[in-house]
Amino acid sequence: MASQRQARTGGAAAGLKTTTIKTGSPAARSKGGKAAAAKAQAKAARDARARTEAAGGEPAAARASRWQRMLQQKVPEDLPAPGRWLQWTTWLLSVAGLGVSIYLTIVELAPAALICSSTGIVNCANVLHSAEGHIVGIPVAYFGLAFYVYLVLLNSPWAWQRKELFIQRLRLASIIVGICFVLYLVYAELIEIGNICIWCTSVHVVTFALFVLIVFDAAFRRPPIAAATQSR
């Protein structure tokens, strides 16, 4: 009798154990699946970082930090301040260039406002209305207007007195781009069109004068790149 009870008890225990194992198996499998997924995600993240580093890239946070440092970088304290004559001369030249650019923009909108010779080598209408006087269908005068609005701000005495190094670099890079564009326009007038626009030429002269002054300042007062190197 006792042996029968033990047999029944053992059978019940075995059944309970079997039930427990069967019930716990899905949970174990679920935990194992989650662990495998986490490992796969971690591996994918490591692979992505490795590919970024191999390509010479950097995380967005690092790029943002680099740009922030560049914008906050100051010129050295011992860098001589630009002369007042330079500040005001470049600003007044920029205002003069803006004035002519506004007039040429008005001429584009109302051709009857043009005051210029229409015979001989000086022929403003031929230059302004030529194919070379447009870039992707936009009159060059519009680009000149935008450029000189920008230069009036960048060459103002207030901007010259700022200590941020990127402003010096931006001023120098902008006038280099501007003089390169002027050289192209002079080539287009003399070689491609065969006429000269006296108003355009006045803008070219102003741009060249600004180029000489700004490059002179960058070269002799202290180059912006050299100043940045010494400030580190």
Q: What is the element layout, followed by pairings?
A:
Layout: H1 2-54, H2 60-72, H3 84-109, H4 124-128, E1 134-135, E2 138-139, H5 140-154, H6 157-160, H7 165-193, H8 198-221, H9 224-231
Antiparallel strand pairs: 1-2
Helix pairs in contact: 3-5, 3-8, 7-8
Describe the structure.
It is flat, with a radius of gyration of 36 Å. α3 packs antiparallel against α5, α3 (84-109) packs antiparallel against α8 (198-221) and α7 runs antiparallel to α8 (198-221). It has 9 helices and 2 strands. It has helices spanning 2-54, 60-72, 84-109, 124-128, 140-154, 157-160, 165-193, 198-221, 224-231, and strands at residues 134-135, 138-139. The chain folds into 2 domains: 2-57; 82-231, VKOR domain (de novo design (two linked rop proteins)), CATH 1.20.1440. By secondary structure, the chain is mainly alpha-helical. The model is unreliable at 1-7 and 11-23 (pLDDT under 50). The chain has a two-stranded antiparallel sheet. The chain starts with a helix and ends with a helix.
